[in-house]
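Two proteins, back to back. First:
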Amino acid sequence: MCNHVAVQFNRGIGIGAGVGHTLLGDRARPRRSSWAIIRRVAGIFRPYRLSVLGLLATVTASALIGLAPPLLFARVIDNISKTKDAGQVDVDAALIFLAVVAGALLSVLQSFLNNRVGQGVMYDVRNRLYAHLQKMSLRFFTSTRSGEILSRLNNDVSGIQDAVTNSFTSVYSNLIIVVTTVVLMAFLDWRLTIIALAALPLFIVPTRIVGNVQRRLLARTQERLGDMN
């Protein structure tokens, strides 16, 4: 019966089992496919789809503009050392300045949209979570520790907020930067690009190891926070 109560609680908030630990432990966690969780998350973001599209466009534009200064600096150096075209150097310097200003403005817009989406989603999640708690039976509150409920309300939702406002944007931005940088490197010199990409496993493997350790520590921290409350 306790397992059934935990399953109903997770279903009611509309997020799925992928967020945080269940109130009654891992054994009570309902099994859902990744696509089911993605559909639930997409439903939460649906009211903010225009802001999300604007955020993605802003991140993409910022990443692309970030490639301009290095190319322009290279052209300035070539002009100074070879052609000595002072007029072209002035034009390139002005373009570098404009690229930096545009990048700064896009960063401000990105921060605004990021916080708008993140805070809006968290507002909706907290309201849905609170409304669902009001519908739970007395058996749920007598069979579940109050500390675990508080941990779900405070710590787990804060973890969602961090994922929405920071992790998602960082992952997408880094993906765009990596793709555009690799394309640019291949355009400039494909041989050096292959050498650079060959060294990637030296960075990916340690990152995955550290990430797995962090996930285990985070899960343990959430459990300890539930015990403390």
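And the second protein:
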Amino acid sequence: MKKNIESVIISAIGIEREIMTLQSDEKKIRARWNRRYQSYLRAAEQLAKLTRYHTIKEADLKKRVLAWTNESKSLTALRDAKRKAIEEAHERLSKVNIRIAELKAEDDALQSNVDNIVDQVFALNVSVTAAFEARNTYLNSHVFKQLVEENGSVRSQITFINRAQTRKVVALTNSITLVRPDLAEEAKQLIEAFFGQFKEKIKKDVPLEVQALYQITSELLVEKTTFRIGPTLYRFISLSIDPELFPELKKAQDLLKSSLRSEKTGSYIRLYQRENRQENWIAIKRA
């Protein structure tokens, strides 16, 4: 819309400049007519006062007097043409100005509509935010706290169903498994000690099961500085290690078991609804 207004305004400016040029031309034509008219008057006066006739001066004065009629008509026609062009330009300018006013009115109406939309969305956002905060406060105080067991452990989810069994709220929690760095460091040193012993025996015959244990243990460390929490770690923890044959690995295994802990990272809910008990639950979209 603004581009349309700008283009029309540019047109109006062009017409205004055209009018100024036409007015300047019309003024010059009037000035020329006045000069020629004064010349005509002087020639007529001089011709009337002549005492000598049939001279070059008399012929020149007569020529100027006789030429005035046609010259006046020509200049008057040029002046009238310029005035008509000025009038037409003013009419075009008037129409363009009306169009500018219409476009501005339309733009104002559109902007007012946009203002109303923005104000309404902001007002609704305040209401939604307040409702969202109220819901979260209620969930934290009445729902999410029930995910924590008496012993302090965190349940993965808990379900609430109304008496009619037509509405269901499922509260869930996300968790992440972390490794205590102090115990992990001690376990790493024991595993590295196992590596050292294995390298010393590498030239000798090593049982396949010991080689497999070495492989699992080597995959357990990431760049020999930290532990990768994943299938390999849990596989190592679940191994049955003979403490007499591999005391370092057994102790490292116990340390890693003790170092693992699960921390809650976030809670959320899912809502379900159905017409009656015989129907399947349908998930409800929530904010």
